[in-house]
Amino acid sequence: MADEPGRPASSEPARDPASQPEPSFSEQVGAAIRGSALGHLDPSAPPSGNAMLAAMGGVRGLVESLLPGILFLVLYATTKDVWLAVLVPLAVSVGFVAWRVLQKGQPVLAFAGLIGVGISAAVALLTGQGEDNFLWGFAVNGMLIAVLVVSMLLRRPLVGVIAGSLTGTPHAWRTQSAKRAVAWRATILWLAVIALRLVVQVPMYFAADAGTPGAVELLAATKLAMGMPLYLAALWVSWLMVRAVLDTPADAAEADAR
């Protein structure tokens, strides 16, 4: 149909009202964090055991995280059979994933655990050494340290990114001094926790590699002790730190910096 007389022809293409702009990278990251187990945390609420447990995937998630390591420790300590000590935890991890799939649950955490157990088992079976079951864990801790360090070099401390996504204030953790300081301190806390694991456990690995009696069992027990318990302690402290400045207004935050 021709344009009406006196009305200029429109050169702009018709817009689709249903079209939506693509979410930004930061929005996608925030959505991923809120959709993860960390999405169960409410930084504005007091820390609670139930919320911490939910962040771990519930009782089932806790069992899926701890049982493979416990089985390795018990089986290796009693049999010294590397194949048995790594294949039984691997089979149990496969069972966890299958159980979640059959119940139409969320198998993400169990599948992530299976990948870790599988890689660790493969390395140990290739070398035939029980202590090599822990090499993948060292690599993961190293990667986590790298992520934390990079986030700080980019002046986007990771705890601030996560807290901002959970609270819906993604920029306040960079623009308000009190919140920015907490984001840095909490990120450094996590960096120290993860680095401590390597500082303590890597010498144990070398002791086991040198054939020191009982070193593999000690390393397995230490990894369990410095795993979930240390993680929960760091999460609890971080939660308290974030909550302390959550409602800090911008003017008060700037006053704190003076």
- Helical amount: over 70%
Tally the structural domains. 2
Which structural class do the helices and strands define?
A: mainly alpha
Which percent band covers the strand fraction? under 5%
Write down how many β-strands occur, each being a DSSP E stretch of 2 or more residues: 0
Order of helices and strands: HHHHHHHHHHHH
Q: How many helices in DSSP terms?
A: 12
- Overall, the morphology is globular
The poorly predicted ranges are 251-258
How confident overall, as mean pLDDT? 82
Largest sheet: none
Question: What's the alpha carbon Rg, rounded to whole Å?
Answer: 24 Å
Rounded to the nearest angstrom, the distance between the terminal CA atoms is 67 Å
How would you characterize this protein structure?
By secondary structure, the chain is mostly helical. It folds into two domains: 48-128, no CATH class; 134-252. It contains twelve helices and no strands. The protein has helices at residues 25-35, 49-55, 58-79, 82-102, 108-127, 135-153, 158-167, 172-175, 177-209, 215-225, 228-245, 250-257. Helix 1 (25-35) crosses helix 7. The model is unreliable at 251-258 (pLDDT under 50). The chain crosses the membrane at residues 53-76, 82-102, 109-128, 134-154, 188-208, 228-246. Keywords: Membrane, Transmembrane, Transmembrane helix.
What keyword list fits this structure?
258 residues; mainly alpha; 12 helices; 71% helix; disordered C terminus
Secondary structure elements and their pairing?
Elements: H1 25-35, H2 49-55, H3 58-79, H4 82-102, H5 108-127, H6 135-153, H7 158-167, H8 172-175, H9 177-209, H10 215-225, H11 228-245, H12 250-257
Keywords: Membrane, Transmembrane, Transmembrane helix
Transmembrane segments: 53-76, 82-102, 109-128, 134-154, 188-208, 228-246
InterPro entries: UCP010219 (IPR016566)
